[in-house]
Amino acid sequence: MTENSQNSQKKEPFYLNGLHFGCQRCSFCCGHSPGFVYLSERDLKALCSFKKLSVKDFVEQYCRWADYYYGTQVLALKEQKNYDCILWNSGCSCYEARPVQCSTWPFWSWMIESKESWEDCAKECPGMNKGRLWTFDEIEENRIAYEKNIPIHKEEVLKIIEEESQL
Ligand code: SF4
Ligand code: SF4
Predict the structure, then answer these.
(1) What pTM value is reported for the model?
(2) Domain spans of the chain, in order of start
(3) What pLDDT, in 10s, does the model give residues 71-106?
(4) What is the C-alpha to C-alpha distance for residues 145 and 47, in angstroms, rounded to an integer?
(5) What is the pLDDT of residues 98-117, one digit of tens each?
(6) Among 105, 123, 126, 140, which one is most buried in terms of CB atoms within 10 A?
(7) How many A from CA of 34 to the centre of ligand 1?
(8) Closest-lying ligand to the alpha carbon of 98?
(9) Mutate to test the pocket of ligand 1, among 20, 24, 120 (most ligand atoms within 8 A of CB)
(10) Which protein residue's CA is at the shortest distance from atom 2 of ligand 1?
(11) Rounded CA gap, 130 and 49, in Å?
(12) From the CA of 31, which ligand is nearest?
């Protein structure tokens, strides 16, 4: 947990009584404009298993390196020419194994930091403030999963690929 998120958790969350969310399948969060879907080690393994591909092959076909903090690089999904996610094909082609970044939307820490940030994000996601009521505990479960899902660094991926080649 980051220092900022610890501070934000000291305030009483505005979503104590839950929040409404129901995806309207507009596809906005899966493409249309440049962005990054970062992958953690858990995401990478889940996607490789779902696609029945080695880490080497999955990374070559579906991934790119994204600049991260302090000059490091982490693993992210490629985009198509129109900026849609590489795994988008009239829906998420890997929905059952989709990255935690995707499955925890829209309960990312910074999105639910305040009522203002939630409403601001709701201008771009028509599913927010619609659909079923997500309880405080469900929202917290997603927020924590999002925070714990650290993107995997390039060196770690290369090490996994090296270990894989020795099997
Ligand atoms: S932007 Fe919101 S409503 Fe649209 S696909 Fe994403 S989660 Fe669903
Ligand atoms: S992995 Fe699936 S859910 Fe996530 S952005 Fe890509 S298409 Fe959308």
Answers:
(1) 0.90
(2) 14-165
(3) 999 999 999 999 999 999 999 999 999 999 999 999
(4) 17
(5) 999 999 999 999 999 999 99
(6) 105
(7) 16
(8) 2
(9) 24
(10) 125
(11) 33
(12) 2
Q: Ligand 2 pocket, 102 CB below 6 A?
A: yes
- The number of the ligand nearest the C-alpha atom of 46 reads 2
How far does residue 89's CA lie from ligand 1's centre (Å)? 15
Q: Is the dihedral of CA 69, 102, 9, 42 positive or negative?
A: negative
Give the pLDDT confidence of 124-153 residue by residue, as tens digits. 999 999 999 999 999 999 999 999 999 999
Which stretches of 63-130 are DSSP H helices? 100-103, 115-122
| pLDDT at residue 157 in the model | 98
Number of H helices, E strands in the chain: 7, 4
